[in-house]
Design goal:
Blueprint (H helix, E strand, L loop, with lengths): L1 H12 L7 E2 L6 E2 L3 E3 L5 E3 L17 H9 L3 H9 L6 H17 L4 H4 L10 H33 L12 H12 L7 H5 L6 H27 L3 H28 L2
Antiparallel strand pairs: 1-2, 3-4
Subcellular location: Endoplasmic reticulum membrane
Membrane topology: Multi-pass membrane protein
Family: Belongs to the ARV1 family.
């Protein structure tokens, strides 16, 4: 009787439910990533479905994982999203939002997006106000993209996504949007060499970074939702277009605040 009560209290505390991981090759759930043979020897667990090592990245250096992320590797995305700690992703997300807001505020995107928040007034307060409006613009755009991705996935992909991965789909999707945005660090050269770049060259640079972001988000969406790449591409492009339309309408209101 005492053991049954102890088991019941463990269930309430969530202690009896082990951490859920996934195989980075096929996406199947696995209970553990490695087995401890001795105090100094670890053996990577093999996936029962594909018979490959469940997660080879647990032995790799961070730099190698980062290179595979840049190369849009699905196994690298699965490792980051499901088999590692994502607590620091929100810090990266904040940095990226500030970076995009700064680019928008300094008019690096003005000729490409036809959106301008920088004030010509000499008052420093008005100039700083333009940065905060730019920050609101980028933040709202990120939230809209996330919401439309979630909505269109539920509409166009009726399978119960994320139910066997150990992480709720909304949280995995949020982490995925932040992870896909890492490619926006390529906007930094625009800030550095903006004065020495022609308008067509800057437009090409921005277009390539946006295209890379969309492709990266398509790969991540396919990993998280289990969709094919084609369906994920349709959902991502649809969400991106609708987000751009609504954000254009919202920018008129933000301009009125200037």
């Amino acid at each position: 009787m005492k053991q049954k009560l102890q088991h019941y209290f463990n269930l309430l505390r969530g202690q009896s439910k082990p951490q859920q991981y996934v195989c980075i090759n096929c996406g199947s759930p696995v209970q553990e990533l490695y087995k401890r043979i001795s105090s100094t020897v670890l053996k990577i667990t093999e996936c029962e479905k594909c018979n490959h090592p469940a997660d080879k990245y647990i032995e790799f250096e961070v730099l190698i994982i980062l290179i595979d992320l840049v190369l849009l590797s699905k196994p690298a995305y699965r490792h980051i999203l499901y088999n590692s700690d994502c607590k620091n992703l929100w810090k990266i997300g904040i940095i990226l939002v500030l970076l995009e807001a700064y680019c928008l505020w300094t008019e690096a995107f003005s000729r490409f997006t036809n959106v301008r928040y920088r004030s010509d007034h000499a008052d420093p307060f008005l100039a700083e106000k333009g940065f905060y409006v730019s920050l609101a613009h980028i933040f709202i755009g990120t939230i809209l993209l996330y919401l439309f991705l979630y909505l269109f996935t539920r509409i166009l992909h009726r399978v119960d996504v994320g139910h066997d991965t150990g992480k709720p789909y909304p949280m995995a999707l949020l982490h995925g949007v932040v992870l896909a945005s890492i490619g926006k660090f390529f906007f930094i050269p625009i800030i550095i060499w903006k004065q020495n770049t022609s308008d067509p060259g800057m437009a090409i640079h921005i277009s390539l970074v946006v295209a890379y972001f969309v492709i990266s988000l398509t790969q991540i969406h396919s990993v998280i939702s289990g969709c094919t790449r084609t369906r994920s591409a349709v959902i991502v492009l649809l969400a991106f277009i609708v987000k751009t339309y609504f954000l254009t309408e919202i920018s008129a209101f933000l301009n009125s605040l200037m």
